[in-house]
């Protein structure tokens, strides 16, 4: 007594798309098939809820409480936010986090430039694409250590700066005026290959025809770039600058490995403040409140990105 | 006169055409040369730090941080030192990383491969709701994630210390568990499953095959390229991640390699060359995997963003 659900399709022909949407012509919704479907998803969903959904809600709740893990959370209303507003350390952290966004336009412009370069049909271009991607696949633990050594007073960075006549003497990481920018350079160095690949995909999606047509119409190379290539890249630019902005505001790993917020608090960011409250002082409520403020700022800058790229629409 | 003019014209035209072509070629060659120059400078900036760390790790003595093109001497002294160091057992760190990567990758890939199947090829109430809920989760800000996950890990009792063997199992689990439900992986696999012809699945269902059999015999083999790509990306991700482990693990001997490396740089402050040797050992497997599986990185990355 085998069911033959396939027969329904011979009577009523469905489009393949509709069949796909239904999960196949043979799939009839029964309690059994529903249970099977959920059984497939159960382990994934359980961990997803525990480690991804729960933190969003519990983290938001914690921001309005006093909590140290040992005793249950105690509701304190907006007190954590008032504490943050009165803490100059948090403000200076916030200022450094916002300063860090400076890295976004630089990294995006350079990545577009590099993508244009490696998009040229040159012999051996594959080597360069690969070379630029190596820092991306390297751990920040290693990258941070390598650059800490590179930045040493008598290290290669100062040797190059000295040769260019820009030598300032000490290590860039030990100078409060330069430390944040020195760390930013590492972010740039590690991230550029990542965005390069995304822009490369964007460039290859535009296709040669449009650019060639513009050239035939007498457009200069710069005009083609400005009026054909750049508008075509706009969706990619939106995605990349969103990713880049959010990770700039949340920068942590490179600072954790290289400077620990120093010297003189010059690389101390808002997230560094937040994690210190949690993992050094065990003030989880205060830390969660800091997290919420960082999240709100991320969202605001995300919206700003949308506006600046006109929603990432290619034809604007 | 007339004859000459008729004769003359094509030659001047072809001459100027040839001239133009030569000029264009020359200009192209100059542009290519300039491009190579810029490409070369960027390549040096990207690769020299690795090279410099490598050659410095080989030097037995000398001015350690100096910029150089060749090592002042070659010995394996620093490698021996880091591998036999007693403060942080390096062999143990490598073993930890292998265990964490194996468990992490196999669980991450299996769970995503399982969960993506009904989302792509089955019909059940709540399918769209779950799919969109996961999409929303991807963009929800989760700055307190690390903090709440730490609390969760403690509440689950994963950081208790009772007996050495149980402690190790629990702490490995504490490192791996938060990363296992990968939304990107779910989307990648769902995308791969969507391309499987529905007729194959229908035929199997008519033949009375169980869904688990269909998943194992039809979906997994057909999605194999995606599974391989995703596994490689996940291996690199697990191998490279250090922050979570370093922040929460109570037992330093159970840390993965990249987290232990930071521990090392604290204890070995007298011999940075030994830490450099450790850094080289940490990067090496990733570079080998990257060299062989390069295309997967580029493809996986594009897929992840298109999601």
Task: Give a description of the structure.
The complex is a heterodimer of chains A (316) and B (307). Chain A is mainly α and 316 residues long. Chain A folds into two domains: 1-44, no CATH class; 85-312, MetI-like (MetI-like fold, Orthogonal Bundle), CATH 1.10.3720. Chain A has 15 helices and two strands. Chain A has helices at residues 7-11, 16-22, 31-62, 79-86, 88-100, 103-118, 125-133, 140-150, 156-163, 179-206, 208-216, 221-249, 253-258, 270-279, 284-308, and strands at residues 65-66, 74-75. A two-stranded antiparallel sheet of chain A has the order 1-2. In chain A, strand 1 and strand 2 form a beta hairpin. The longest helix of chain A has 32 residues, at 31-62. Chain A starts with 6 loop residues before the first helix and ends in an 8-residue tail after the last helix. Chain B has helices at 2-58, 77-84, 90-121, 127-139, 145-155, 164-176, 183-194, 198-206, 211-222, 224-240, 243-248, 257-267, 272-292, 294-306. Chain B has two domains: 29-75, no CATH class; 90-306, MetI-like fold (Orthogonal Bundle), CATH 1.10.3720. Chain B is mostly helical and 307 residues long. Classes of the chains: A mainly alpha (316), B mainly alpha (307). Chains A and B meet through helix 2, helix 3, helix 6, helix 7 and helix 8 of A and helix 1, helix 3, helix 4, helix 5 and helix 7 of B. Chain B: Belongs to the binding-protein-dependent transport system permease family. Chain B: It holds the Pfam family BPD_transp_1. Chain B: It comes from Deinococcus phoenicis. Chain B: Keywords: Cell membrane, Membrane, Transmembrane, Transmembrane helix, Transport. Chain B: Residues 94-293 form the ABC transmembrane type-1 domain.
